Amino acid sequence: MPCNSEDFPVPCDRCMDKLPEGETPEGEKTNAEVKSCCYVRYPDGAVRLRNPNIELMDQDILYHLALGSGSHDLQQMFGDVKFVCMGGTPKRMEQFANFIMDEIGYKLPAGTTLLDISQYSYRYSMYKVGPVLSISHGMGIPSVGILLHEVIKLMYHARVKDPVFFRLGTCGGIGLDGGQLVITDEAVDGMMRPFLELPVLGQLVQRPSKLDTELAKELQSLSTQDDPFETHVGRTMCTYDFYEGQGRLDGAFCDYTEKEKLEFLHKVHDNNILNMEMESLAFAALTHHAGIRAAVICVTLLNRLNGDQVASSKEVLNEWQNRPQAIVARYIKKHMGMTGPAPRPPPPGPKTVVNSKKLKFVREESQSYE
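The structure corresponding to this sequence follows.
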């Protein structure tokens, strides 16, 4: 099907750069030959879902966010979002929300406090600070996958244009000591394969786990000589398990020797894999499938070639965990064109809850849905 057909918009500027010389948007270029952002975004940059069923629904309930397309005015609430930042725990992302609020000089209206928008879901936490969303994604591929489905749908319902997604996390370094930053240019699974494999209707589906390489390079360029850490770009191994999946010796089970473990880790290191964690594969695969620019930036807590246990103090670990936040904050400020504090937000607009009956239903469904 031509990419400029009724079902697929014309190629964007970034895709046109990839077309052979002489090609034009009117050419019979198939959607398989054009970058995915062409057919998962509308011409104005708004996120376009790859699911025709959503438009046919009376209300799309985002169960794990306690939001609904019929109960809330999602465009009023989230239409100005430009940056979506995700991390493991609710506490860390609450701290990031407060941090970015100070960094961009965002002032809450008088008499208000930072609100956990998804508090009624009891699963994830979400905070909005101007154009920045700060969301916890839990631990592991299933948790981040569920969240991404609903956040991508949220972007669609809110008509958000050209959002950039970030995962800020911690990891085990492979040949890197604790406190170093790793920006992922490709996520691989425990077999070093660069795709997410999942069964769909009894068939194994493979989705490439690609990330935006230009975004990774730009993030790396934002680190300075004054930073007390080094920033590296490389491959990340994403596993389905913290213990055996990462070759640890300290789990409840261990059917391999320390020698075998080290042979595996050195093989990983020789393949330019700089770190291990448990979310990047799904994060990269789903954002790529959605045509959303995304980056993963993690701080190492230890060098896995030297051991399995994190031995640094709590104070040191807390400082290390702030390092990915600092780099992402620099990116956000740069792309907000900030040379000073952000202006005070405008007075509250129309009510964001548009149907109280549907709101009650959404909250009940979110609390009971498993």
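The longest strand covers residues 293-303.
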